[in-house]
Design brief:
Elements lengths: L8 H12 L1 H14 L5 H5 L7 H30 L6 H22 L6 H36 L3 H18 L1
Helix pairs in contact: 1-4, 2-4, 4-5, 5-6, 6-7
């Protein structure tokens, strides 16, 4: 129901964390497949093959669900905040998740069609660059919102270090 209800910080944050946990979600799905198998090599190998139902669930759907939820939430946040989507700040966040969905889809399809490997690499570069730029923008906005308070405190060095570290880690995981 989260994309359909009034958006707030807690709901947005929780879904954003689900997006950050895509790799552990895929690991959990693989673990369920692995321990649900009969432990033969053929049965276990089906957990990773994109031609099997298990492989599709682990490789694509587990990544797609949090991204789709967050995409819908960005659209919903923009509509609730201003009554329009285009021109709102969340529109740019929406396109970030759209780029991630596009990259996931091309990645999944490239396992069936090897000629999509180069488009996958290009899509991945574009998506990562867009995510990095978006992180810089949001951190800059956050810095401007909290800068007045932090300039009055003695923790400016801590703040600047945290800001630089956040840029590094957000780029590393994008």
């Amino acid at each position: 129901m989260s994309p359909c209800v009034k958006m707030g910080f807690v709901l947005s944050f929780a879904t954003d964390q689900a997006v950050s946990f895509i790799v552990p979600i895929k690991d959990f799905a693989y673990s369920v497949c692995f321990y649900g198998s009969d432990f033969t090599v053929d049965d276990i190998s089906m957990c990773l093959k994109t031609t099997s139902v298990e492989g599709v669930i682990i490789g694509y759907i587990a990544a797609l669900i949090p991204l789709m939820l967050r995409l819908i939430q960005c659209w919903n946040q923009a509509r609730q905040a201003s009554g329009k989507f285009f021109g709102h700040l969340q529109m740019w966040n929406f396109f970030k998740y759209l780029a991630s969905i596009n990259t996931s889809t091309i990645s999944f399809l490239s396992s069936f069609y090897p000629e999509l490997f180069i488009p996958f690499i290009l899509s991945s570069i574009i998506s990562t660059s867009y995510s990095y730029y978006w992180d810089l923008v949001t951190l800059y906005l956050f810095r401007n919102m909290t800068g007045v308070f932090l300039k009055k405190s003695r923790s400016t060095l801590f703040y600047e270090t945290t800001f630089a570290t956040e840029i590094h880690t957000s780029t590393m995981w994008s």
